Amino acid sequence: MSNENQERKVYNLLISKGIDTYDEYEFYKERINSQKDFLWNEYNTEDDELNEDLFDKIDVIVLLYGLYHDNKDICDELIDKSKELDIPLLFVRSYGVEYVIEEIVEKADAVVGWNPHCIVDAIETLVEGEEEWIKPCDIEDES
Fold it and tell me: Which residues partner with 89 through β-bridges?
């Protein structure tokens, strides 16, 4: 079993963080940490220097929609870096919110709600690079 654990991927995630009226950053961390079989390293836009060395090790950029309006500059920078450096961009809708700005969603490689299984599935799928993947947790799939 230890060999199995050694072979498991540890995902390096860069998460948007900043002015956070609804505490979405901490809620996101709680959701993803609830998935015991998912290993990840946390980097964020407040505590880490956004330099070339950091972006070189990032597997997925996670953009929390609830932080977008109050942190537009840094979120737009993440979107730009995602495209420039070919790092997958995961867009997490605000809890309970169905409407999101379409132009932001169109820039994302995947869009999910707050279901922790959907978040983890999206990250794993984005990193594995499955071409035929259909966004599994888009708004139509959530009740």
Answer: 61
Q: How many domains does the chain have?
A: 1
For residue 50, the SS3 value is: coil
Q: What is the mean pLDDT of residues 32-38?
A: 93
What DSSP string describes 66-125? Answer: GGTGGGHHHHHHHHHHHHHHT--EEEEPPTT-----HHHHTT-SEEE-S-HHHHHHHHHH
Domain extent, residue 47, equals 2-141
The phi and psi torsions of 52 (rounded to 5 degrees) equal -60, -40
Plot region of 30 (φ>0 → left; ψ -120 to 50 → alpha; else → beta): alpha
Give the H or E element holding residue 28.
helix 24-33
Residue 3 confidence (pLDDT) above 80: no
What CATH code is carried by the domain that includes residue 17? 3.40.50.9200
Indicate yes or no: pTM above 0.70: yes
100-116 pLDDT per residue, tens: 788 888 999 999 988 99
> What phi-psi label fits residue 113: left (phi over 0), alpha (psi between -120 and 50 degrees) or beta?
beta
What is the amino acid identity at position 44? Answer: N
